[in-house]
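Throughout our pipeline, every protein is held as a single compact record rather than as scattered files. The remainder of this section carries one protein's record, kept here as part of the documentation.

===
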Amino acid sequence: MAEITAAAVKELRELTGVPMMDCKKALVETNGDMEAAKDFLRKRGQAKAIKKSSRETNDGAIAAYVSDDLRTASLVKLSCETDFVAKNERFQNLLQTICSQVATQGDVEVPGQTLVDGSGTIQDLLAQSVAELGENIQFAEAKRFELDEGVIGSYIHMTGKIGVLVPIATSVAADKDQLTSLARDIAMHIAATPAEAVLPEQVDQSVLDKEKEVFVAQARESGKPDNIIEKMVSGRIQKFLKEICVSSQPFVKDPQRTVQQLVDDKAKELGVELRFDSFAKFNF
């Protein structure tokens, strides 16, 4: 067995762009033969994948997985180059596989996760799909929710370009059909509206700072004194928060009620406490 030196691994890495550990594995499998190692990586689709990795992935699709008991769910966004590939059955199957993986294994370091069946990693699957479909395919993002009690609703727009998960937690078991309908209605609402958070205190400070800068600049154009500008900006920030926070938005199916009122009414109807304080939304 030939000695696999760090220099050889580095050289193969520079030639193919494939991660170091995979380069070392290829050299081990081919007894240190550089050309055979490159062929080994090409056969696995990895080298081909890297060659295509510089191509922009502005298209893709989003999918959700919800467990049978409705308490565990995942949302995954997978990018590719064209809508044609995004609609391809192979791509859609890959997306569903990753969704199922995230639901069971979590949403951290997804590409490096070992598949549940032990057949490789998510990154291996991505590389194989690149080789088969001929486009750059990239994992974009994922989110997983799990509840002790309650349901998680999902909504994927028919084009697969918008996806939403909404967990509704309950204090005790409640009518799952009604809860699922509520969660799905809220998910559809979020898909159709600008939504940064459920509650004002959840909005990232950087978002508020950016809007405040704009509001201050606009107010100063009016020539008002600083104390008046401060009041104007404060009022506009409050209005902005009402517009981007789901809890205070008029519900799209019934604008006479806010989303929070919708949740409160359902809680009263079912006689249970309902908690809606988070969601996940991905879009292209």
Remarks:
- The chain has a mean pLDDT of 91.
- The chain has eleven helices and nine strands.
